[in-house]
Design a protein that fits this description.
single chain; alpha/beta; Immunoglobulin-like; Rossmann fold; 5-stranded parallel sheet; 4-stranded antiparallel sheet; 29% helix; 23% strand; globular
Length: 490
């Protein structure tokens, strides 16, 4: 049977038995329980990327509608379908007002797939509604969150019966260096958020503000205090007294409690908003299946580490294996004549026109790692003492190909991938599966919620709002809350 015949046969099978072959799943099919800025679910038709048929995108259609309590009686919903080029789709939708009688209709060639329409009496709340559930444990269960994460257990195990009054004094004494460090002391009390920030560069508090406000709109948070580091570098070195500081990046030499980075957190909270780079968009913006990608390794970035200059050297000696360029010079401006000229930025989505993506540290861990894993390419990751909250769940040669710290074996790794295309593709598929199982918006929200719950259990001191603290109010959004699990006013 020729490839063309097999393709036509599989399409016909899918058309004939769409109820059996097309399935829909994901948190967006529980909109009454899982509230996100952009809800999402997956549609899968049992085709492999080797038999992908572009026409499938025209045959699969989605309609989402419902009734609104507003005067116009229409539920405002924006729907976005992303084609993953492997016979599956990501559907994102954003709800702009409270909806009742929501209906999610999934069609294949004009006919409902199995279980469609999916119907919900409601209310279905938009993200901006400040309608928190009372019971955090129940909310975590309904949201599909695990009870604990190994990384959280490891990060918190050294802290017991914490007196935050003493801790704050110690942190201010040792780490309050306005020219080099910035951090915020947060108090969550009665589900309201207050903070004091320290340092010259505190603009990144918008990211920590936003995740705390998001959670407080969804569920009654436990009273707690915490200090969030606004810089990239972890602060609490292991040769010093451990104090609980939350950071976006951890390292083998520090005690910092690791949170999901501000980058992936923003992409979670701004999904279908002003942020275009997110785990879902990456998967839906890939132009080529594996077999059609160029078998070279690609990298773009600034000069934030010496190994990045070495990467340019390696690429210049092996242009048939690498497409590498620096996009900006800051740390090694005196090297621009040697390693320039600066290359223009390219769309991150174009990285996946290539089979192999290089992940090399910047000032700390390169925060692009989640998106590289999601793009369906084989990631070559530099050995590093830095890590994000999920790194320790990754396995070398299963989810990525390891590269030595000095890049001495990088060329060898690319040659291996070229000679072992089937194995490289398996690693690439494993990476994308990992991203879908652990790094989607639902997972990032869960990690934050579980982390804050577990941290609240460690505090023995009474949580009080200090007089000089700044309140962080919820966005002004008209929304009437109803139901036993919600408060109308807080």
């Amino acid at each position: 049977m020729t490839n063309l015949t097999l393709t036509i046969f599989l399409l016909c099978v899918c058309r004939s038995f769409q109820k059996e072959f097309i399935t829909a799943y994901g948190p967006g099919l529980e909109p009454d329980k899982i509230v996100m800025p952009a809800r999402y679910f997956f549609i899968n038709c049992s085709l492999s990327d080797s038999t992908y048929i572009p026409q499938l995108a025209n045959d699969v259609a989605i309609e989402i509608n419902g009734k609104s309590t507003d005067k116009n009686n229409n539920c405002r919903v924006w729907v976005n379908k992303l084609d993953r080029k492997d016979g599956s789709f990501i559907v994102r939708y954003k709800v702009y007002n409270k909806c009742m009688d929501l209906s999610i209709n999934i069609f294949y060639k004009g006919k409902h797939i199995k279980k469609s329409p999916f119907t919900y009496k409601g209310p279905i709340y938009p993200d901006q509604c400040d309608c928190p559930q009372k019971d955090l444990h129940r909310w975590l269960q309904e949201y599909g969150c695990p009870k604990i994460y190994d990384q959280i257990e490891n990060d918190l195990q050294i802290y017991q019966n914490v007196d935050m009054n003493t801790v704050i004094k110690k942190i201010l004494k040792k780490y309050h260096k306005p020219e080099s460090t910035s951090f915020c002391h947060y108090v969550i009390k009665d589900n309201t958020i207050h903070r004091n920030c320290y340092g010259r560069h505190v603009g990144f508090n918008m990211f920590s503000d936003n995740i705390l406000l998001f959670l407080a709109r969804k569920v009654i948070m436990p009273d707690m205090e915490l200090v969030i580091n606004l810089g990239d570098w972890p602060l609490v070195h292991k040769n010093s007294e451990p104090v609980p500081i939350f950071s976006w990046c951890g390292s083998d030499d520090t005690f910092d409690i690791v949170m999901p980075t501000y980058d992936i957190t923003e992409s979670t909270l701004e999904n279908m908003g002003r942020v275009t780079l997110d785990i879902l968009s990456v998967q839906g913006s890939v132009s080529y299946a594996w077999k059609d990608r160029e078998n070279r390794a690609i990298w773009r970035g600034r000069d934030s580490r010496l190994e990045r200059l070495k990467l340019v050297d390696i690429s210049r000696m092996n242009p048939d294996l690498f497409n590498v360029s620096l996009t900006n010079f800051f740390f090694f401006r005196d090297k621009e004549a040697e390693y320039g000229p600066k290359a223009p930025h390219i769309s991150f989505f174009n990285f996946f026109d290539y089979k192999y993506q290089i992940n090399i540290d910047g000032t700390v861990a390169a925060y692009r790692m989640p998106y590289l894993l999601a793009g369906g390419g084989m990631v070559m990751k530099q050995d590093s003492p830095y890590y994000e909250h999920f790194y320790k769940q990754l396995n070398a040669w299963e989810h990525y190909v390891p590269v030595s710290r000095d890049l001495s074996d990088l060329k060898e790794r690319v040659l291996w991938a070229r000679k072992n295309d089937d194995k490289a593709k398996i690693i690439a598929n494993n990476a994308r599966n990992f991203a879908n199982n652990y790094l989607l918006p639902q997972h990032i929200i869960c990690y934050h919620a579980v982390l804050f719950l577990e941290w609240s259990k460690k505090i023995k001191s009474t949580v009080t709002i200090k007089e000089d603290m700044t309140p962080i109010p919820q966005p002004d959004f008209p929304c009437e809350c109803n139901g036993k699990e919600y408060h109308e006013e807080l």
